[in-house]
Write a structure and sequence with these properties.
Length: about 180
Amino acid sequence: MSRTVTISKFVGTISLGLLTGLSYTHSRTTIPPLLALPSATPAHSTFRQLRVLTSRHQVLLSSLSASTLVMAYLLAPPTKRHPYLLWATLATAAGWGSEAYGKLFGKKQVATVDNGKRGKSMRKEGSWTEDEEWIGDEEGDVNGEVVREGMEGWKVKQGVKAGIWGVGWAIAVVGLWGDGA
């Protein structure tokens, strides 16, 4: 059982480190080039795809990290149940909580979208994400300012997640070092 606990600690810590790196990379190196694209339409479609893929990976890694750290805590003998495992799990959950909150309680709003017919505009109902980015039905109905605001908001959100997950990763690394695992 000792080997299972040790492997669980390492898998949880590595997953938490990957989460930190993923969020940091997106906030510092991926979004700035997207903001520099000359047209809103390719920026919007690329950003939508990036958000979907990032969300999938973050949910997978945070679930893996939290479950293995909790499993290590529960399987460890009472003398080896260190609270750093719970603190690292709490950091994982805190970073992921904003993602889950946005999916559960996302807003439905109505936006005015230009349909390309000589100044006429129509009201379309669509979905707004938690970052206030309009996701319309057609790729041509993209407002560059709204896309930019959505990207900048998401960039800040990823930076905050990277900070939260980075603190959790640091706690886990120091705890592993203290365990001698």
